[in-house]
Write a structure and sequence with these properties.
The chain has 341 residues and is an alpha/beta fold. The protein has one domain: 3-Layer(aba) Sandwich (UDP-N-acetylmuramoyl-L-alanine:D-glutamate ligase). The strands form three sheets. A nine-stranded mixed sheet has the order 7-6-1-11-12-13-14-15-16, sandwiched between helices. Strands 2, 5, 8, 9 and 10 form a five-stranded mixed sheet that branches. Helix 4 packs parallel to helix 5. It is globular and about 65 Å long. The N and C termini lie close together (10 Å).
Amino acid sequence: MNASGFEAITERFGKLRVALVGDFCLDRYLEIDPGRSEVSIETGLEVYNVVRVRSQPGAAGTILNNLVALGVATIYPVGFCGVDGEGFELRRALSAKRGVCLDYFVETDQRRTFTYCKPLIVQPGEAPRELNRLDSKNWSPTPKSVQSKLRGGLETVAPQVDAIVVMDQVDIAETGVVSTEVLEAIRHIAKQLPELFIIADSRRSLKGYPPVAFKMNRTELSAFTGKSVEMQFAEIQAAASKVACANARPVFVTLSEHGIMGADAKGQTEHVPAPPVRGEIDIVGAGDAVTANLTAALASGASLREAIEMANAAASIVIHQLGTTGTASIAQLRDVICSGE
């Protein structure tokens, strides 16, 4: 992609409206200064003293952070949080983001706020070191009343947007936002608005999802197709093409250091290698940066290859941000994509 092509695509981002349906969580970072450690008188165990707490939207919120960094005009989160302290922090973090509208974000006392609590050892001159994460999740099915509110919000916002992102982050089906009822709403929207770009990502499997654009990693493609996770490059290419043809929608497969394989609605494939690694990396958030950039680019008229190039560049930028779940701005993307001109 040359500079003029990049500018033609990204200048449209400021007019985009995107709905983001999925599991929003609170990423809470606890920065620990090991120089202030002490021993508890009561237990005899080492005490980690937290010197800084920072919170930001995570999971589907990481996609939102990347859409904000790209300058997308309006983002509509469709999800929920609990009536708890973490929910307060999450709503505050979301509302502080430019262009975010919380009209369809549900606050309910029937759910806990999904939270990733991440203790970090932070020392001068060293990369942050993450300790065991403390997670707060919902282990019971999402109540029907909450599902109905989510479905209603999604069906209301769909005609107003240029793209919809679906992000299923939970480990147990039906315990999060993307329930069977919400998937039925997406199926209905896809039929009623066939030109609307919709892309889905699920850490469990996209089996049973309506025919929309799919974004998967190698392991998820293996689970979806029943093929070995060790499948060779040509097999990945063939599998992506087959799924894309079946859905008549694009498919994207992230391949870590090997870049991204994409197939268009007719099964024609494109592979773009990843940019070289430039030092120590942290892969957290790379997949979400890919999803955000694919969405913004394709909703702005980019070709399949152009969208993959942007997504690859974004992932490269994010993995070099240590101790946080990072984002990629248009200026950063320009530096990576157009640096060879």
